[in-house]
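Task card 7
Instruction: Convert sequence to structure tokens.
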Amino acid sequence: MDLMQLRYFRALAKNGNLTQTARLLYIAPPALSVSISRLEKELGVQLFDRTGRRMYLNSCGKAFLEKVDTILGSLDYAVDEVRGMNKKNDHTIYIASTSPNVFQMCFLAFMHSFPHYNLSHTWVRSDQLRSHDLMQKYNFLIASPGDFLPEPELDSCTLYDKDYVVLLCPADHPLSKRKVIDLAEVKDFPFVALSPDYSSRKLFDKVFEKAKITPNIVMECDYSMRYHMVEQGAGLSIATAHTKIIGHCGTCCAIKIDPPYTPRSQIIYWNKAMYQSEASKDFLEFICNYYENFSFELN
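Output:
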């Protein structure tokens, strides 16, 4: 029995599908199947009940998973604590986020307040949130509640929940002077949307679903290209007030959409079982305080 077998077992226990779990672990399904079979043979008991393509923990599997979670959690904590003794690692905070375009100003303010710390930021796609080891790689994940279902071992703090959806249009567009708009008024207009991998694309789809409108999407792209395409008149788009306030929409005008009024929140997650350096603790306190009095009202 080795640690890799235990990690494979835990991943499969939490997913239940051998093929999907193997994909998340970046190994072939037969290799995962062999690893689990060897583990069961060594223990002398079956850990899973097989039903078609699904694998369900039986009573032995549930009892074993509880112990494995404790063992791996303690080991991971010990590894992080030892690594944290290294001065360089102890001064670097590793952050992943699903909406990287809205946190630049906050990160910059933190760097000004704590110049002796370093930040390492990574954008993660929606499909990467299902990776079992995501929170082993980063100190923090910042995401919207609808992006994924957090594991029980994660703790969290809501950074803000008063942001809301806006319509983006060119500065010379006939709608540019409007303050509020019903989405139904622009249901026949062309739209520029983010690619499906982006968290904000889920928000885009949610807004139209609430309004019971099928959008006329003429282009899918990334954040920077989105506002450039809107500026040039390729179509309208959906963003948030926060995105406009921090200057990430170029010269585009932002109009509050109501109805359907759609709020947008961001939550910071961390693994409560993992070691947190002083740098990480300072970052968490800073970012939670940063948004306490932040205004999402457009001028």
